[in-house]
């Protein structure tokens, strides 16, 4: 065909087709290089974020291991009061060890899901408060947003 009879867009399309047929088939596979410098933690730094249950300014590795023998309801702080489809629950953290606890349906559970013996509790989601009672009758009331309620 005579190029003078074809429009400029048709000439461009024929040139692209000819280039693609010739140059794409000849491209060596070794020209692609893979970089192993980027890792998930370097791209998405979630591992450097603060643990919401940890103490301010402390790192997870600095905390002591949790011991039930040294447990006291007075060492806890209320971190959250929530409600799901089945019940209300409150999240607590022990300041010294960083251990977290869950109050649900009147029972306090540790991080492993085991009930803490001798501890019962109640909560009011409207006032964002919770109360824990020890086996000896000692009561600690917590309010979200305050250090200690009473």
Explain what you see.
There is one protein chain. The protein is α+β, with helices and mostly antiparallel strands and 150 residues long. It has a domain at 51-143. Helices cover 15% and strands 29% of the residues. Strands 1-2-3-4-5-6-7 form a seven-stranded antiparallel sheet, with no helix packed on it. A hairpin with a 5-residue loop joins strand 4 (107-109) and strand 5 (115-124). 14% of the residues are buried.
Gyration radius over CA = 31 Å
Q: In total, how many beta strands? A: 7
Q: Roughly what is the average pLDDT, rounded to an integer? A: 75
Query: How far from one another are the termini?
Result: 95 Å
The biggest sheet, with number of strands, parallel, antiparallel or mixed sense and barrel status, is:
7 strands, antiparallel
Q: Tell me the β content.
A: 25-35%
Please report the number of helical segments.
2
Helix content: 10-25%
Which ranges are low-confidence, i.e. pLDDT below 50, for 5 or more consecutive residues? Answer: 56-63
Summarize, please.
The chain has a domain at 51-143.
Topology:
Blueprint lengths: L7 H19 L13 H4 L32 E8 L4 E7 L5 E5 L2 E3 L5 E10 L4 E5 L5 E5 L7
Antiparallel strand pairs: 1-2, 2-3, 3-4, 4-5, 5-6, 6-7
What brief labels describe this structure?
alpha+beta; 150 residues; 2 helices
